[in-house]
């Protein structure tokens, strides 16, 4: 424990440092899972959400599923069409905004999966898979590829 004191105050004071029960600061320890676990008692994206209610956990599962599905949709659709020879500033701006939205959704999905909740992981994979099935598999035509090729 003595080597911990050299970390420049990064660790909260322990009772051994004189900051025991007489201290005015109260430290609460929050348990964070670092391995996959089953269960509805998880925090996903926001502090205290979804809480301990089963209905809120199901809502969180649906929310993450929709986020990952939307990511696939945005990855494979061309909402803003323009001629490759004539790309206007407006077209570039709209494409940049759509890209930023897709990236934001991706980071939100990543943070949700980092809750290490198996249910969240499974609905994330399911959302990406369904999105790819509906939107992505139409884009790639593998009929012209040689046998054994992806």
From TrEMBL:
Pfam families: Ctr (PF04145). InterPro entries: Cop_transporter. Signal peptide: none annotated. GO terms for molecular function: copper ion transmembrane transporter activity. GO terms for cellular component: plasma membrane. Keywords: Copper, Copper transport, Ion transport, Membrane, Transmembrane, Transmembrane helix, Transport. The chain crosses the membrane at residues 55-74, 105-135. It is a multi-pass membrane protein. Its main location: membrane. It is found in: Membrane. Belongs to the copper transporter (Ctr) (TC 1.A.56) family. SLC31A subfamily. This is Copper transport protein. It comes from Escallonia herrerae.
